[in-house]
Amino acid sequence: MQLLDGKLVSAAVKEEIKQQAILHKNNGGKQPHLAAILVGNNGASETYVASKVKNCSDVGFKSSLVRLEENVSETELLATIEQLNTNADVDGILVQLPLPKHIHEEKIINAISPEKDVDGFHPVNIGKLVLGLPSFIPATPFGIMLLLKHYTINTAGKHAVVIGRSNIVGRPMSILLSQNTEPGNCTVTLCHSKTKNLKELCLQADIIVAALGKPGFLTADMVKENAVVIDVGITRVKDESKKSGFAIKGDVDFENVAPKCSYITPVPGGVGLMTIGALLMNTLNAVTKNKL
Fold first, then answer.
1. Is the pLDDT of residue 274 over 60?
2. Looking at the domain 139-271, which fold is it?
3. Residues belonging to the active site
């Protein structure tokens, strides 16, 4: 069993991004600029945004953080996005999710200019992804592909099972794994809460991507020997033994599944770090590839 080390690979990705950004600037280009919008003061969201700002600094990007109150109106949030859309210095825009219940999430995502949608959630970018056209790829699936590429994991002809059908991870992940690329060329089964024979499907899988948000859901009896397991889950679970009062758990029962795997991602230290690396890569591409 070998760990797919997100810390190691994200560091390598960030160094590549840093060098490309320097080269771009030396050739007369601009400094990449990522703008983030944070609504309210959700603890997890605060942590994620702070990490994104720090990582921008690490690779030489400019970053802006727009803070809005929890009770901000949808109209005001849309106006803020439009200001960033029309700001020529801003290359990438992200709105930290989740949003308060009174705000229509889909409307907010659709308001971001597709050319600045570095989260890769806009319908235009998702449509291009489906068609195999250049686009901003949702950051978590993109990060997973970068991880597979770094470890030169052979995916061609393999059976991949993706558990979870969200528009943020599951669906785009299934598309990427099935594309005629390397990594890619998998035969993909996309599973969800209504899948009846999930265990049997998982036992056929050479690659499993667990992205459903249920701690410890994927157990050892669902995984065949030498499978590659990617754990996207990241859930806070109460743990009095921890100073913080909680532990971070993935969707995989790591302790019992890991011995059966050829490769597996840890939680934390796996996919989460790659997500930020992929977001930075999208932001760089927004500048260097003439607004994909």
1. yes
2. Rossmann fold (3.40.50)
3. 52, 96, 119
